[in-house]
Automatic annotation (TrEMBL), chains A, B:
Family: Belongs to the class-II aminoacyl-tRNA synthetase family.
NCBIfam families associated with the record: hisS
Enzymatic class: ligase
Biological-process GO terms, alphabetical: histidyl-tRNA aminoacylation
CC terms in the record's Gene Ontology section: cytoplasm
Keyword terms, alphabetized: Aminoacyl-tRNA synthetase, ATP-binding, Cytoplasm, Ligase, Nucleotide-binding, Protein biosynthesis
GO molecular function: ATP binding; histidine-tRNA ligase activity
Protein name (Swiss-Prot/TrEMBL): Histidine--tRNA ligase
Description of how the protein assembles with itself and partners: Homodimer.
Length: 469, 469
C-alpha cells in the first residue's frame, strides 16, 4: 500500500472551511465594494518581486522576515556554489511582505501610463517569515487603499481613506467604532515646543506609541527616567498632551485651536488636521465615529503627516483594525519623481481570525441557495431542467443526481447550510408546480414552476433571523 | 542622492494596468458567478504548502518546476549547513504548482467536516519555475471546479463541470466555442480491441494527444515506425478512430453505438460518455456547443474516465481554453479513503494574455463611474456632499478636491475612462440640479439632485456602443 503523508497545511496560515470562507468572502466583498465606490482602481501585483527591488531599504524588521523564493534548479545551483565556497548572494526572488512596496514599484514603473492622483486598492496576500504564534500569520490578506499624487497631493485627500473605511466598518456592523486621527507634524511641533530635541523625537514618539497599551503612568516614568531624562514639567505637558482624546467635532476643533501659536510646525500640523476633520464632516462621516487622539503616532518611520488608527469601541483588545497615514515620498528608491501619498490598510486575515475567536462572526449559510433533490430516476430530466432554469435566473443551485429518500436529501441540505429544497415529484410535474421547503424559516410553500425563481428571489431579499438566534 | 533601483516586476509574471485589470476582473467575476450558480463552494488555500505534502508524487515534470520558499533565517541556516558539508534536505515550504494538490490535501484533512459530494471552486494563483517565454507564466491565475465523492461518485456529475464552463464561455462571448468530450476507458478499450497492448497504450495515447497539433499523417507514420511497429491496418483503425469528431447530439450517439460490442472496457466507456451527453442535453447545453472528439486523451496520467477540452471555434491557435476530466482517486497519498472526482480548469492568466494579444479583449472603462469636479473653492462642501450621496446610492465616484478649469477636469475623466462628469456649479446649486456630461455618449443632461443617482443608474443599465466603434 502506498505511504500516507499526513495532510496538513503550512504552519501559520489561515485556511477556512467552506462556510467560514463564505463569511470571509462576504466581508471581503463589502470591502471591495466600498473601495470601488470611493473611486479606487483595482491593482494586483505578483506575489514575488525581484529581491533587489523588494529590499532596497535595508535594516527594517520586516525585511528580516522576508521569504525568499528559488526554483528547483536555482536552489541546486545555489547549494553547489555554497558547497564550493563561492560568494553567493541572496536569491533573485522574494515574496512581498506588504502591498506598499509593490505599489511603489508599480507606480514608478508605469508613471507615464497612470492618471494622477492615482487611486488604487489592492486586496492580496502578503508573506512574513514570522515565528508562528496564535493570531500571527505567515500569510495573510491585506486590504489597502492609497492615493498617490505627482509632485503634490492636497491634504484634503487625507480624508478619503478614512471616509471609505468608515463606510466599510459601518456596513460590516461589528459594533461602534472610532477612527482616531492625529498628525505627525503636529506631534513633532509640539515636542519641539516643549524642548524635546529633534533627535529625541523619534524615540519619544516610539514610547508615546505604546501609551494605549501601557498607560500614562508608565510613560511618565519612562520619560523622566535615565534614558530620556526629561524634566517633570515637560513630562507632565507631554502626558497631558498625549492623553487628549476629543469627543465631538466642535471639541476637536477647540483642542486644535488651543495648541496653536507655539511652533510653526505644530501650527502646520494643526491646520492639516483641521482640514481633514472638516473634510470628514462634509463627506458625511458622523462626528461620533472619529476623534482626535494625540497619542496616535504610528511606529513606521515613513509617515509624515496625518496618521490614523481605528478601534472597535467595545473591543479595544483587538487593537487597531485599520491604520495608515500620509507619506511624503512613496517611491524615492525607484524614481526621482516626487510621489506623495496617503493610505489605509485592513489586515483582513488577522481581523477575521480575531472576530472568529471572539464569536463576532459565524459561519454563513452555503453560497448554494437551492437544492434540487431527485426523488425518482424517471424525474431526472425534469429535475435537471429545473436546476438549469433556476441557474439561468441567477440562483445558485445544487442538483442531486441519484435518487435517494427525501429525508436524506433534506438532511444533506440542512448540513450543508442550503436554505431551500425545491421538490419536484411526479405530482408536482403533472401540476406544473414546485414544492419549496425553506429550511431557514422552517416552512414550505408551493409555486408555479415559471414563477419559482422570482418567488425565491423575493424570499432571499427579505431578512430572516438566522437559525439558532 | 539616493541610489535608484530600476522598478521592474519579476520576469514571467502578468501584471496589468488598471483598465486592463478591470477587464480581467470582469471576466473573473463572470467565472465566479457561474461557479457559484453551479453549486460550487469557495475554497482558498495558502500559496505555499509543506514540501513533504506537496511533493508526495515524485518525478512529474511539474514537480521539477516547483518554487521553494525559505525565510531569511532558514536560508542562512541552510547555507551554513551546506558550507559545512552536511546533508541538507529540501526546504520545508514550496509554492503550489496547481490547485488540485492543495484541494486533495484539504479534502483529506477535513474529510469529517465536509459534506459529500464536495463541490468546490478555487480561483487563485499558482507558481511554476518555468523558463520565461512569451505566454508562459511563472505565476498565473487558475480557476478550477471539482466535485469529489466519498467512495463513489456517479458519472452523471461528469456533466456538471462542462455545463458550468459552458455558461461561462457563453456569457464571456469570445465567439463560438465547442466543448470536446472523450473517455479514457473508451480509448483504452478501443486500443485493446485492435490489439494494442496495455503497455503500449499510454505511449500511443501520448502520441494521439498530439494529433490536433500534428495531424493524422504524422500519427500514421509515428505508429507504423520503429518505435511502435504497429500493422498498417491497426494504424488505419486507430487513425480513423482518432479523427472522429461528431456534429449533432444524434450523430454523437450514433458514433458511440457503432463502437459497442467489441470490448468490455470500451463498452463501459461508451456507456459513461453516453450518459454524460444525455446529462448535458437535459442541462440545456445546446448540442452545437459540445461534441465527441475521440482524439482527446489529455496528457495527465491521473484521468481515468471522462476527459474534456474546450476550443474557441474561430481561434484554434489558442489551444484548449478549459480542460479537465475524471480521476478515480484524488488523495491516495493523504488518506486511505477513496475520493473519486471530476473537474475542469481555466488557465485565466494565459487565456487573458492570449485574448489581449489577439485584440479580443480591450481595456474597460474605469471602475469609477462618476467624476465630481470642483469649480470653485466655495463649492467644496456641496461637491463632497454630492459625491457622498452618490456613493451611498451605490455609485463609484471620484471627487476632485482642488478647483481647476472644467476643461482640465473633463480631460482627466476622459483619460481615466470615467464615463460621467457630474457638474455642480453655483447656478446648479441654486436651482437644486446637477448637469451631467456623458463622455461615452458625448451628450449631456440635467437632473434634479435628488433624482441624479437613479438617473445615472438607468443610464448605466443601458448598453452603449463603446467609443471608437
Amino acid at each position: 500500500m502506498a505511504q500516507i503523508t499526513t495532510p496538513r497545511p503550512a504552519q501559520g496560515t489561515l485556511e477556512l472551511l467552506p462556510r467560514q470562507q463564505v463569511a470571509f468572502n462576504r466581508i471581503a466583498d463589502v470591502v471591495r465594494r466600498h473601495f470601488e465606490a470611493g473611486g479606487f482602481l483595482p491593482l494586483e501585483t505578483p506575489a514575488f518581486e525581484r529581491t533587489d527591488v523588494l529590499l532596497t531599504k535595508s535594516g527594517g524588521e520586516t525585511e528580516k522576515q522576508v521569504y525568499f523564493v528559488q526554483s528547483t534548479g536555482g536552489l541546486a545551483n545555489d547549494r553547489e556554489a555554497v558547497a564550493a565556497g563561492d560568494e553567493v548572494g541572496l536569491p533573485d526572488l522574494a515574496l512581498r511582505f506588504d502591498l506598499t512596496v509593490p505599489m511603489a514599484r508599480f507606480v514608478a514603473q508605469h508613471e507615464g501610463q497612470l492618471t494622477f492622483p492615482f487611486r488604487r486598492y489592492q486586496m492580496q496576500r502578503v508573506y512574513r517569515g514570522e515565528r508562528p504564534q496564535r493570531g500571527r500569520f505567515r500569510e495573510f490578506v491585506q486590504c489597502d487603499v492609497d492615493i498617490i499624487g505627482k509632485d503634490t497631493l492636497s491634504v484634503r485627500h487625507d480624508a478619503e481613506p478614512p471616509a471609505t473605511m468608515h463606510a466599510i466598518f459601518r456596513e460590516l456592523d461589528f459594533g461602534p467604532f472610532t477612527i482616531h486621527l492625529n498628525n505627525r507634524r503636529l506631534l513633532r511641533g509640539f515636542f519641539r515646543s516643549v524642548g524635546i530635541t529633534d533627535e529625541q523625537q523619534p524615540l519619544v514618539l516610539r514610547e508615546v506609541d505604546k501609551i494605549d497599551k501601557r498607560g500614562v503612568d508608565w510613560l511618565r516614568e519612562e520619560l523622566t527616567g535615565e534614558r530620556f531624562g526629561l524634566a517633570a514639567d515637560v513630562v507632565d505637558a507631554v502626558a497631558g498632551f498625549v492623553s487628549t482624546r476629543t469627543g465631538s467635532h466642535a471639541e476637536a476643533l477647540e483642542v486644535l485651536a488651543g495648541l496653536e501659536g507655539r511652533d510653526e510646525e505644530l501650527d502646520a500640523g494643526v491646520a492639516e488636521l483641521r482640514e481633514v476633520l472638516e473634510m470628514l464632516r462634509h463627506l458625511g462621516v458622523p462626528e461620533g465615529d472619529y476623534c482626535v487622539n494625540l497619542a496616535i503616532a504610528r511606529g513606521l518611520d515613513y509617515y509624515t503627516g496625518t496618521v490614523y488608527e481605528t478601534f472597535l469601541d467595545e473591543h479595544p483588545e483587538l487593537g487597531s483594525v485599520c491604520s495608515g497615514g500620509r507619506y511624503e515620498n512613496l517611491a524615492g528608491q525607484y524614481t526621482r519623481s516626487s510621489l506623495p501619498g496617503v493610505g489605509m490598510s485592513i489586515g483582513l486575515s488577522r481581523l477575521f481570525w480575531q472576530l472568529m475567536e471572539n464569536g463576532m462572526v459565524a459561519d454563513e449559510p452555503s453560497t448554494v441557495q437551492v437544492l434540487v433533490p431527485l426523488l425518482d430516476e424517471a424525474l431526472l430530466p425534469e429535475a435537471l431542467g429545473l436546476a438549469a432554469e433556476l441557474r439561468t435566473a441567477g440562483l445558485r443551485v445544487e442538483s442531486v443526481l441519484e435518487p435517494a429518500k427525501l429525508a436524506k436529501q433534506f438532511k444533506h441540505a440542512d448540513r450543508a447550510g442550503i436554505r431551500f429544497v425545491a421538490v419536484l415529484g411526479a405530482q408536482e410535474v403533472e401540476r406544473g408546480v414546485v414544492t419549496v421547503k425553506d429550511l431557514q424559516r422552517g416552512d414550505q410553500f408551493e409555486a408555479e414552476r415559471g414563477d419559482l425563481a422570482q418567488a425565491l428571489r423575493v424570499e432571499l431579499a427579505q431578512p430572516v433571523a438566522v437559525r439558532g438566534d
